[in-house]
Every structure is written in structure tokens, then in C-alpha cells.
Amino acid sequence: xxxxxxxxxxxxxxxxxxxxxxxxxxxxxxxxxxxxxxxxxxxxxxxxxxxxxxxxxxxxxxxxxxxxxxxxxxxxxxxxxxxxxxxxxxxxxxxxxxxxxxxxxxxxxxxxxxxxxxxxxxxxxxxxxxxxxxxxxxxxxxxxxxxxxxxxxxxxxxxxxxxxxxxxx
Length: 169
Hints:
The structure is a single chain. By secondary structure, this protein is an alpha+beta fold. It has one domain. It is 37% helix and 35% strand. The protein has 6 helices and 7 strands. The protein starts with a strand and ends in an 8-residue tail after the last helix.
């Protein structure tokens, strides 16, 4: 299992989404032991990724992740797709957005265009269904607990180096 920085994992997911644009699923939750926001993102043909992240400050999100498995069992897929809503990974090109706003295109139209697949500075390369059910999140955490030990150790080291746990000592 290779552990990568947050942005590298997101790039991997986006790369995989170019091959398989439909059928993505996710479950999101909060790991109260490590104070992390966890995202399990998967596709039946790709496998499952885990992304652990935290807000270092109001302007910076840090994290890391890994691909946990190359295959998802049908019962896991069924568990994640229960109680799900829409999610997406959004990419933005601030220069393109500003050029379009300066041309008179309202920000709402830029966002609406992204939802319809037209790039005016914002794209949504990964779309799917996501569950925020605590039961689903805990089920995923329990299923993959042995796979994520190395990731959690690396995450704890990164967070400690940033001094996030200092106020809790």
C-alpha cells in the first residue's frame, strides 16, 4: 500500500474517473480518535481509496491517502450505496474563472455550466453517490481497519509535526 499526499490521491482518483466517468460512490465521516475527516471513495472497476484530512487552518486542508483495495465486494458496495446523496470532486482554474467574470459571465452561470459539463473555469471530473450515514462509515472503517494501520500511523506523524495535537496533551 503506497501512501500519498492528499492532492496526489485526488489526482489518481480524477485520472481513474477519466476511464470510468460513471458509477463512483463514497462515504464520508469523522474519525474522532485521530481528529480526521475520512473519505472512502470507490468505483467497482477501480477499487477503494481512503483519504484522511484535516483543516490545518481556515485556508489550508492537509491530508494523505492510499488505495486500500483493487476490488470491492458486492455487499460492501450495497452498504455504501444505501442512504446516499450526490457528491463530486471539483477542480477550478481561478484565472479562467476571473477571465469569464471579466467578460460579464456571472459566477452562478460558471457553476451551472460546470454542473452541465461545460468548462468555464470549474469542472467536476468525478461525480457519484455518497453516504454520510454513521453506520455506513463505521462499517467501512471496520472492514478496512487492517488495511489502514500504516496510513493512520503516517497521518498521526504528519499531524503531530504540524502541532495539531499539542493542545490535547
